[in-house]
Predict the 3D structure of the following.
Amino acid sequence: MPRIGIYPGTFDPITVGHMDIIKRALHVVDKLIIGVALDTGKEPVFDLKMRSTLVKEDIKKLGALAKRVEVKPFSGLLMKFAEDEGSHIVIRGLRAISDFEYEFQMACMNARMNPDIETVFLTASEDTHFISSRFVKQIARLGGDISSFVSPNVAKHLKAYYKTGR
């Protein structure tokens, strides 16, 4: 039986940090579903369709590994999405101690809802632990260079978004 993992997030936008976690998650699971969340309590720059498209485009760069990754938008509870997809593993990335408390609480709540689904934490690599989508958007909004934080495709879309004055 294949180990199916879910890597949920807003991915607004997907960063090289997300891609690092995706590549490393493929060492843990046979199939990885990137769950692009609609209901996040955040106000994303890009709509759900665009965020999903940007993730799909970046995943293509994984070459042969991309065949083991699927991108699916979802709405509602993560545990319901994981159940519907036949997943028993949720992948979460941790950048810093500040992430841990929130992620730990969320993992405990999810375990209470479905104890058969395990949360696996992957720590961000040394090269990406400081990258966040929020900071990338701020830098892009202020006209800074984001080329080391996101793919050229994502950078192009962020620059276009902020150039239109939205």
Observations:
- The chain has six helices and five strands.
- The beta strands are 4-9, 31-37, 69-74, 89-94, 118-123.
